[in-house]
């Protein structure tokens, strides 16, 4: 029997693979050294790294559409909800389309050549949709490059802004309006939000009435020039029962700041705190004489305020039944406040004055985004692409920390979403370890760093 025997080459292993073992040892050693080197040179987070505070969450209103949210605000103030009007919704939507091309036109449409033109004035636009009542009101808010939030929250923010604007607030809280339509359009970086509101009873009667001033019942109060067809409507057919007064703000999610309105109730200022207001029912039977109007933060009276009424309103839009107190500095976030309005109610019948007081409380909201309270020199931990609100003290900013100078390193890219008197809403996009250093422009505030984690 023959036996074949294979012997390994001298100094090797069977099959000629003896060289792999030392090679694998050297490769393993090299990988270990590279990992160790990478660990040693990897930038470690600064020891004083700070993390953002949590901003305002949507809560019970987060999923509401714009009309439902407006009705929530009216409900907090003790007013009835707006019904959704198809005609007013169409007129508001058409005007919102127009305003994304011509935001400066506000309540007018001065470009009839526009494909979105629907009528020069509000009355023309609602008439085009079939609305008969001439007492419709309109509130408009436009912004460019708005905050990085979804469509629903963006409309909530438009309403929050309108409710800090005192003339618009009085309109949106009108007790004699009971229906509305809302339009919202985003195009070419422009956002247009429009509320049209009216009185459903008056609109219905305008479509039915054939009265003229010659055949009215003289013992009944009536409105002339209220209908598209020139008809007369009686007050007792259309008026809505109103509360004795409407005080605002109320609730637990109140905005802290007022920054823009046309016309401007504070023409000498760029911003202020959210105004506190009270509007009395003009049909209540009394004349109102203000004795005092005060705002308290805890037990401390808020100083540096300005009070507007029919005499002191620079635009002469207040009625003798409307009063507002403006804190000239923004209110503090997430803080309880208490308003106290003392007045004399002077009877129209006997002329007697009775001193009375209205007192109400509210709580301000947190910022809309996760936020940092800064002094300068901080190292902030942020997530790539997530918006953050950077706030510096107003005492350092003097109200103009809305512009920043910055430098970036790595592949970090800074996006500025919104500028506010005490800071900016920004996001940083990039890979971990990249970042941005920034500071308010023209201020002696040290740079702070946003570090992507």
Automatic annotation (TrEMBL):
Q: Where is the SCP domain?
A: 67-195
The UniProt keyword set, sorted, is: Membrane, Transmembrane, Transmembrane helix
The portions of this protein that span the membrane are 23-41
Give the matching InterPro entries.
Answer: CAP_dom, CAP_sf
Name of the protein in question: CAP domain-containing protein
The source organism is Neisseria elongata subsp. nitroreducens
């Amino acid at each position: 029997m023959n036996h074949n025997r294979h012997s390994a080459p001298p100094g090797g292993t069977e099959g000629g693979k003896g060289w792999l073992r030392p090679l694998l040892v050297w490769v393993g050693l090299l990988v270990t050294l590279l990992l160790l080197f990478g660990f040693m040179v990897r930038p470690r987070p600064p020891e004083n790294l700070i993390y953002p505070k949590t901003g305002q969450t949507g809560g019970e209103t987060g999923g509401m559409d714009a009309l439902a949210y407006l009705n929530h605000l009216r409900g907090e103030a003790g007013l009835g909800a707006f019904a959704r009007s198809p005609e007013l919704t169409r007129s508001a939507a058409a005007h919102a389309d127009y305003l994304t091309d011509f935001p400066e036109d506000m309540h007018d449409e001065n470009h009839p050549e526009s494909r979105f033109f629907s009528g020069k004035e509000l009355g023309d636009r609602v008439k085009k949709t079939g609305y008969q009542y001439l007492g419709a009101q309109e509130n408009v808010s436009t912004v460019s490059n708005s905050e990085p939030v979804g469509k629903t929250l963006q409309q909530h923010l438009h309403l929050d802004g309108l409710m800090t604007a005192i003339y618009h607030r009085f309109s949106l809280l009108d007790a004699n309006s009971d229906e509305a339509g809302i339009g919202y359009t985003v195009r070419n970086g422009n956002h247009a939000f429009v509320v049209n509101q009216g009185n459903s009873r008056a609109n219905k009667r305008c479509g039915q009435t054939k009265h003229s001033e010659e055949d009215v019942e003289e013992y009944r109060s009536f409105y002339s020039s209220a209908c598209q067809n020139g008809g007369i409507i009686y007050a007792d057919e259309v008026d809505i029962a109103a509360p004795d007064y409407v005080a605002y703000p109320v609730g637990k999610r109140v905005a802290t700041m007022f920054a823009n309105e046309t016309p401007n109730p504070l023409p000498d200022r760029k911003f202020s705190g959210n105004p506190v207001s009270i509007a009395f029912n003009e049909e209540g039977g009394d004349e109102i004489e203000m004795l005092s109007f005060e705002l308290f933060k805890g037990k401390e009276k808020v100083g540096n305020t300005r009070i507007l009424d029919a005499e002191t309103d620079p635009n002469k839009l207040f009625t003798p039944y409307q009063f507002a107190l403006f804190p000239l500095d923004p209110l503090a976030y997430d803080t309880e406040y208490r308003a106290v309005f003392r007045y004399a109610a002077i009877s129209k019948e006997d002329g007697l004055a009775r001193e009375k007081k209205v007192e109400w409380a509210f709580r301000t909201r947190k910022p809309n985004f996760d936020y940092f309270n800064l002094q300068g020199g901080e190292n902030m931990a942020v997530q790539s692409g997530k918006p953050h609100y950077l706030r510096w003290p107003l005492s350092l900013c003097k109200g103009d920390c809305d512009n920043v100078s910055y430098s970036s390193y790595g592949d970090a890219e800074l996006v500025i979403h919104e500028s506010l008197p005490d800071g900016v809403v920004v996001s940083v996009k990039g890979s971990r370890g990249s970042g941005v250093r920034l500071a308010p422009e023209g201020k002696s505030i040290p740079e702070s760093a946003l570090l992507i984690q």
